[in-house]
Amino acid sequence: MFSNLLIKIFIKKSNDVENLRDSYGYLAGFVGIISNILLFIIKLTVGILVNSIAIIADAFNNLSDAASSIVTIVGFKLSKRPADKEHPFGHGRIEYLSALIVAFMVMMVGFQFIKTSFERIMHPESITFEIIPFILLLLSILVKLWLSRFNKIIGEKINSSALKAASVDALGDVFTSSCVVISFLATKFTTIPIDGYIGVLVSLIILYSGFTLVKETMSPLIGEAPDPYLVTSITTGVLSYDNIIGVHDLIIHNYGVGKCMASIHAEIPSNIDIMKIHEIIDKAERELSEKLNIYLVIHMDPICIDSKEVNDALTMVQKIIKFNSLTKSVHDFRIVGEGNKKNLIFDVVVDSANLTITEEELKSQLISEVRKLHPEYNCIITIDNDFI
């Protein structure tokens, strides 16, 4: 309720998510800064008053979250910069870099407080339990719960990996703060230096959160597999146009949220008028690029569909491919040559991650299977990796 109210107050025409993506990001960032600075002040004050290293560690964790929100805002601002000579595909990946900076900041806080917590274990100090600080800590947990929900709502609305990560981080803070509250309450009943042990636990959780964020933000930078929904949307979209009878070799490059470039090969009948199919391909590129918010390039691959010899040979190869566990599909199939010397030329798609033999060994297997049935055919095979 309060999250939606904030959105309505600060973002006009909030339903226009695509054009107001930056506004959503800025709102989430500023809310995160204000919330975390308030929590830092409260927890630091409480930690100093009651002499608790666990509470102070949790306070500085909130301060790092505030710094993270600042980095997120800067990331949104810089990623919006238009393309230039040095960066023809824009600056969208800066958003991933900002999330990576946030992750390292989180880990730095974790390392620092592991050291401090161990020192507290080795040299324990008394902690005074007081009811008002205890209530303030409970309220801080409620604030973090709301902040996690708020970041999740906006992160999903604008598809922001940085804000989704912030949501998970805030939820992790709920757990760490709960541990701190329990340790603070326990000091009322025991003299064991539980504060230092909880401080170590909180620090380890902070480190784990930072490591998880690093892993999640590095993946798109390195080059992760594309969104299955986008893959399906592109392939079914291209196949919906007249005279396109097959697709393959789909490759999607991610240059930031909402900045994708895709290329795909479309199979067309070889006997169709070239100007007619060129017009269809141009239309498909234009309409699908606009509909899916991508830059789509379609390459035409003419295939023979009215030759019995070609169709029979293709059916034979498809059966061989089907019963070979290492292969997924075949495309760009054609027959070249005359008489008793003919070449079967085709590409075979494999899952390179599960390929247990070399590509040359796989080619030899396929050639052997074909020659068992048709010794007169010479196979020229290209191995393709599955990029989706």
UniProtKB/TrEMBL annotation:
What is the originating organism of this protein? Answer: Clostridium cavendishii DSM 21758
The family assignment reads: Belongs to the cation diffusion facilitator (CDF) transporter (TC 2.A.4) family.
| Residues of the Cation efflux protein cytoplasmic domain | 229-302
Oxidoreductase is among the record's keywords: no
Query: Which Pfam families does the entry mention?
Result: Cation_efflux, ZT_dimer
Q: Which PANTHER family match?
A: MITOCHONDRIAL METAL TRANSPORTER 1-RELATED (PTHR43840)
Q: Tell me which InterPro entries the record gives.
A: Cation_efflux, Cation_efflux_CTD, Cation_efflux_CTD_sf, Cation_efflux_TM, Cation_efflux_TMD_sf, CDF_Transporter
Gene3D superfamilies given in the database record: Cation efflux protein transmembrane domain (1.20.1510.10), Cation efflux protein, cytoplasmic domain (3.30.70.1350)
Q: What is its main location?
A: membrane
Positions of the Cation efflux protein transmembrane domain:
30-221
Question: What name does UniProt use for this protein?
Answer: Cation diffusion facilitator family transporter
Compartment(s) where it occurs, according to its Swiss-Prot or TrEMBL record = Membrane
Residues annotated as transmembrane: 23-42, 96-114, 126-147, 196-214
Q: How does it sit in the membrane?
A: Multi-pass membrane protein
In its keyword annotation, does this UniProt entry include Membrane? Answer: yes
Give GO terms: molecular function aspect only: monoatomic cation transmembrane transporter activity
UniProt keyword list? Membrane, Transmembrane, Transmembrane helix, Transport
According to the UniProt record, one GO cellular component term is: membrane
